Known about the structure:
Layout: E1 2-6, H1 13-22, E2 26-30, H2 44-47, E3 53-56, H3 65-86, E4 90-96, H4 105-119, E5 124-129, H5 133-142, E6 144-145, E7 148-153, E8 155-156, H6 161-172, E9 180-184, E10 189-190, H7 191-202, E11 208-212, H8 216-224, E12 234-235, H9 240-247
Parallel strand pairs: 1-2, 1-3, 3-4, 4-5, 5-9, 7-11, 9-12
Antiparallel strand pairs: 6-7, 8-10
Helix pairs in contact: 1-6, 3-4, 5-7
The structure holds NADP nicotinamide-adenine-dinucleotide phosphate.
Amino acid sequence: xxxxxxxxxxxxxSHVVTELEKAGHEVVxxxxxxxxxxxxxxxxVERLEGVDALIDCISINSMKAEESRDFFTATTTNMIExxxxxxxxxxxxxxxxxxxxxxxxxxxxxxAQERVVREAGQPYTILRATQFHEFAEQMLxxxxxxxxxxxxxxxxxxxxAVEVAQALVELGAGEPHHATIELTGPEQLEMVDMIRAVxxxxxxTSPIIPVxxxxxAAAKAVRNGDLVSKRAWRVGQQTFREWRRERR
Length: 248
Ligand SMILES: NC(=O)c1ccc[n+]([C@@H]2O[C@H](COP(=O)([O-])OP(=O)(O)OC[C@H]3O[C@@H](n4cnc5c(N)ncnc54)[C@H](OP(=O)(O)O)[C@@H]3O)[C@@H](O)[C@H]2O)c1
């Protein structure tokens, strides 16, 4: 099959490209660094000619609700309009478990993204995943404030990005679910402990400051496990410890 990957250069998107190629599919990569800005949608229709399915793994590095909403609404609308024009038969999007229970900051954008997909009338599958093992590593950069590292107080069920990618490839090559399904990791861990462990592995010595994610009830929900899947379609195999050993 010919499958487009939006966010083909990202943490999960790059695994999706590798897994698609391993499975013998033809990949159409979409990212600004490959000349496709999905916010404008310029040239998208031409790129999607002959594409059977699109797997969307794009992201914006922002905690601001408005910025996140604008980004995910504009990019998703552009993709779906272009898909319709050339007859792409399946839109698969990667989302996050629990976002509707904690609709703050970045997550508001993800909620808006899912809404556009559900209401567009285009055949779709929404895969909600829990945090990647790699998220702890991303926080070593994204969580930096001066000499400190901010670590969200969050109960998580982390999953390997490569296993998320394998699930996305399977979904992209299959029939649309017209539904939201969930993928979770094999165990529950505190994100603060995960960030501490990865910092130690990488020799990062910045003081780590646990901080709430969101305010009031939202922060409590995140701390107590609202981002952990309660009805998983699939459970990933690789534990965080195994992933760290592999990375070392
Ligand atoms: N990280 C997690 O733990 C986690 C867990 C569950 C779900 N998710 C979801 O998984 C998705 C991917 O996350 P990630 O961490 O893999 O993201 P990431 O590493 O930040 O990668 C983002 C990708 O989006 C592309 N991109 C950004 N702006 C673009 C634009 N205007 N036009 C085209 N491409 C653009 C980037 O490429 P260029 O910079 O070259 O444009 C890059 O390929 C997100 O939707 C996220 O919500 C993440």
